[in-house]
Amino acid sequence: MDYNKETFLTKLAQTSPFPFLIPIEKAEGLYLYSPDGTRYADLISGIGVSVIGHRHPKVLQAIRDQLDKHLHVMVYGEYVQSSVNLLAEKITSLLPEQLNCCYFVNSGAEANEGALKLAKRYTGRTEIVSCRGSYHGSTHGALSVSGNEVKKRAFRPLLPDIRFINFGEPGEIEQITERTACVIIETVQGDAGVRIPSKNYLKALRQRCTDMGTILILDEIQCGMGRTGKLFAFEHFDIVPDILTVAKAFGGGLPIGAFISDRAMMNTFTHDPMLGHITTFGGNPVCCAAALATLEVLVESDLIARAEAKGQLFEKYLRHPAIKELRRIGLLFAVDFESPEKVSAIVHHCKNNGVICYWFLSNPHSFRIAPPLTITEAEIEETCNIILNAIEKS
Ligand SMILES: Cc1ncc(COP(=O)(O)O)c(C=O)c1O
Q1: The whole model's pTM is what?
Q2: Residue 344 alpha carbon to ligand 1 centre in Å
Q3: DSSP designation for 273
Q4: How far apart (Å, rounded) are the C-alpha atoms in residues 110 and 215?
Q5: Which of 61, 246, 253, 292 would you label with 173, given CA atoms 20 to 30 Å apart?
Q6: Among positive and negative, which fits the CA dihedral 333, 339, 340, 345?
Q7: How far apart are CA 280 and CA 283, in angstroms?
Q8: 3-state class of 357 per DSSP?
């Protein structure tokens, strides 16, 4: 065992000067455990991943079963592997019929990279429209279409021909034209602090894309897989994308993402040039088995159906004059305060008292709550009391 913080800080790449630094020995359901026995309620699901809790028994069993068969055997797209086939069958059976063909990759950023390439290849156009405030990943292409200028500045030049519009503003969608290959948009903006667009906006956006022959990519990497109270967030808005991207919760704790489109569109990767998008580990059979088990738990249980009521319960408890605004869809929340310092003090106070809340990338005035959908009513009450106490004392 090695929980040495010095090793962590010196031998591992750091992403910020202030890592959370909690040593983790075990995780189960809602909880993380340190080696000294300290227990933390994970109200952020490892940032949107553990939607059915940590180490769900059905996910573990599926992983074990796959381990007994085979691990990686070949790069993506060559051999016929059962867990990969089963996952593709399952997820496409749960999607509208035009989303019938999956490309499995390893992460959210990669899913968006693939989707952007596919849209450019299919339309023969180059312009990409994205939204201010968006986050689509940290690789060059995904960063290029992300809205946070502070995070991008040091890495220019990035991808050319990207136009940013204001999220949720119908007047802006006229900027999508016959030059536009695709629009990439989070159905609900996550890291901007849970921004929920109106149905009318998304329907108008869908129509504009159809009229212009522009591909609509919905990024549901954070808001998909039951998080909002529907399996896919776009189901709230009565629209269907041309390409859907998922990751995070999709793998039930193992790394996998996907971009999903119509087969005719996806087939453009097979020629001019052949191997238009390739990956060694995409569709890893163990990750696919875990993703399939996660999907089965989500659709066979009442977890998604109960997300709204649980969300309302959080809202009922989380009342305090210091809260400026609470935005919520299903079990995805942003809680706003007057200053980033206040948010920081609350997050640390919660952590010191066994509850994990966390910041957003692009909204310092809020903290996030996105617990596993398996959280119980009693756990909601208990964790909200700790948050309220943190608000009071910060
Ligand atoms: C909406 C959205 N898209 C893409 C990503 C990138 O996913 P990954 O970190 O797996 O590359 C994230 C990650 O937070 C996200 O929230």
Answers
A1: 0.98
A2: 22
A3: S
A4: 18
A5: 246
A6: negative
A7: 9
A8: coil
User: 273 preceded by cis ω (within 30°)?
Assistant: yes
* Contact between residue 64 and residue 52 where contact means Cβ atoms under 8 Å apart: no
pLDDT band for 29, please (50, 70, 90 cuts). very high
**Strands 127-131 vs 162-165: parallel, antiparallel or unpaired:** parallel
Give the residue among 22, 20, 46 at the shortest CA–CA distance from 36: 22
Once rounded to an integer, what is the mean pLDDT over residues 273-296? 98
Ligand 1 pocket test target in 116, 135, 191 with most atoms within 8 Å of CB: 135
CA 42 to chain centroid? 16
> How far is it, in rounded angstroms, from Cα 111 to Cα 245?
6
CA gap 173, 176 in Å, rounded? 6
Pinpoint the alpha helices (H) of the chain: 5-11, 45-48, 57-67, 82-93, 108-123, 140-144, 149-152, 199-212, 263-266, 285-300, 303-317, 340-352, 377-393
Q: Whose Cα sits closest to atom 10 in ligand 1? A: 108
Question: Which residues share a beta bridge with 26?
Answer: 33
Please name the residue whose Cα sits nearest to atom 16 of ligand 1. 222
At 244, is the secondary structure helix, strand, or coil? strand
Q: What is the mean pLDDT of residues 93-97?
A: 98
Residue 248 CA, closest ligand 1 atom number: 10
Of 296, 294, 286, 292, the residue nearest 66 (C-alpha): 286
Mean pLDDT, all residues of the chain: 98
Distance CA 242, CA 187 (A): 13
Cα separation, 249 vs 227, whole angstroms: 9
Phi/psi of residue 334, nearest 5 degrees: -120, 130
**pLDDT score recorded for residue 199:** 98
- Runs of H (alpha helix) within 247-330: 263-266, 285-300, 303-317
So what's the pLDDT on residue 218? 99
Summarize the confidence of residues 230-251 as an average pLDDT.
98
Distances in Å between the Cα of 56 and the Cα atoms of 144, 258, 303 are: 35, 21, 13
- How far, in Å, from the CA of 321 to the mean position of ligand 1? 32
